[in-house]
Each structure stands twice: as C-alpha cells, then as structure tokens.
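Expect chain and fold; see below:
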Amino acid sequence: MFALQKGDDKHRPYIVAETKIKADNFNSKMGENTLKSLFDLLIPKDKSKTSVNDIRLEFVRFRKLLENSRALMSLMEDAEEKMRGEYIFDRQYVLSLIDESIEYMSMAAFDLSVIAQDASEMIYGLVDELKAFTQTYFIERKKDIQISSPFIDLAKTTSSEPEFVFLAQVLAWMKGPLPNGNVSVTEFVRQVFDKAVPALKKADMSNPSIHLKKLAHSTLNCFHLIDMDEAVKSKMELSIHELKCRPLITMLTSNATANHSIAQESADAKWLALMEHDRLSLRGIINSRDILIEVTQSGYMDADFMFMFISHPLISNTLFPQNFKTLMTDKAIFGWSYHLSDYQIEQSLTHIGTSLFN
C-alpha cells in the first residue's frame, strides 16, 4: 500500500505513467499530422497530373543540362585546338581537363535524375565507369606517357612530346568511340539526351491549374502556350501579334518557301511552347515522335544558342540548319549551335519555322 500525499507525483507512478502515455500519443499524432500535411503539400495526391510547377522545374533543369553538356563540348573543342600546336600547355592542363569533364558529367547526371528519375541508376553508373576508366588509364599511370592499349589506334598525334601524347589519349577518351565496350564522354552525352527528352512532361490538358493558352487564328490544330514570366492567369487566347517571345514570333512569321510535306505532317502534331521574352522551349509530338527545340535569343553571343532533338524515324534531315553540329543516337538525332549572332538565330529559326509550320 502507498501512503499517497496530495500533489506528490513521485507517489503516483501509475497515474503519472498513464498521463505521460496519453501525452506521448497526442504529440505523436500531432507529429504525424504535421508530417502528413507537409507531404500533402510537397507531393500531389494525383501524381498522374502535371502541375505548372513541374513544368517550370523541368524548364530550368533542362536548361542546366544543356549548359553542362555545352561545357563538355567546349572542353573537347579546346583540347582539339591545343592539339593543333597553336597553344602551349602542360600536363596539369590535361589533368584539369579530365577533372572538369568528370565534374560536368556528374552535374549532367544530376540534371537527368531530376527530369527522368528512372534513369538515375543507369546514368550514375556511367559516371562511375568513366571515373574508373580515367583512374586506371590516366591518373594511376603518373608520368608513364606510353600509349596504352585502348588508345593504340585512336590517340594519334604527330608529336612525340609527352604532353601531346597524353592529351591525344584523353581526347580519344572524350570523343570516342572506344573499344571493348568502354564509354566515351560523347557516348555519355548521347545517352543523357536519349533519356531526358522523351521524359519531358507534356501539358496535362485536364489540369485547370496550368494556364494553357491557345494560339488564335492558327491553322495548327493543337498549339498551346505557357507564359513562364506570367504570375497570374490572364488572357487565354493569343494571336501571333500578341506574343512576346522573340524566338517563337520568328518561327511563326517566317515567309520563306516551305517544305509542304513536313509542314502538313506537323500541322496535325501536338505542340507546347514554354515562353519567356528571349527563351523558348518548344515541345512537339508528331506521329508518336518527339521533337524539341530550345532557343535563347538575348542578343549576347556568348549566351545565345539553339538545340534540336528529333526522334527516329526522322521527318527530314533538312530541318537542321547548316550551322548545326549533330550527333546520331539509336533513338534520335540531336544538334546544337552556340555563339550565334542575332541574325544567325533569326535565319535558323526562319528555316525551322518554315519547314514545320509553313
């Protein structure tokens, strides 16, 4: 028997324990409800619907992916210039070239994992494979400048200087193709875009939270617009003359002679244009084939570029302007052009717009 004293909790263990359990249960339920509320805010209940925030995130992340891919291509171009003997470089330059390539590939892998989560394991596996390759053939060899086996037929240079021999091998690793199933940097870029572009979301026409605008007075059957600069809902139908996106205006108002077979097929396509004043992301589906056109037309040559992706079977090779560099993959062909003047961008957009939209 306990001699209970009023107000003395030490002599009421069962009461105190019961009270503590109730309090813990209450706090636990409050915590669960709070977490549930947070998850409800962060993760939509209906994952099948695409929100405007999803599209904005993709718009930004795909642009980062293009920047990182562009950086990789620029590294290759710089290495090719060095190989011509016009610049002096040392071994440290070559090692930095390897480090920067790995860094940009890692960032591109992250970009892809945001856009296409299913591709995360594959693409990070490729990055690990590329790191291991450089460790084996470049880093651990230290001052050994002999041509190693994967590069006997690839790393060709007319110079016997150690730095040139080393750079020739690294450039071969970057450009590829490599024997024995080894992955090159170029092959990495191919696989990134093969996974990224098909995964880009198309607008969910049934989701009222997406302010899809229509192109008024157009012969295009399904052409929708999202104004990325617009914070509030406004006019839902725009004429070409009301558009503020420079690249899209140029594409839709071109007056050159059209390839009618392409334009006719494109008229039945589904188009979604993500617009800013000087940036455009145009996504299309033409007979189950993906087409993507990314443009920045700011007037600053260092920042401006164009990128195109068309999945197989190709509509036509003539869609790519002459100044484009292209890469073919198993699934598509994609091309790009950087450091463009305003006039060059307008000419390229006119060519593409005429071909697609007549």
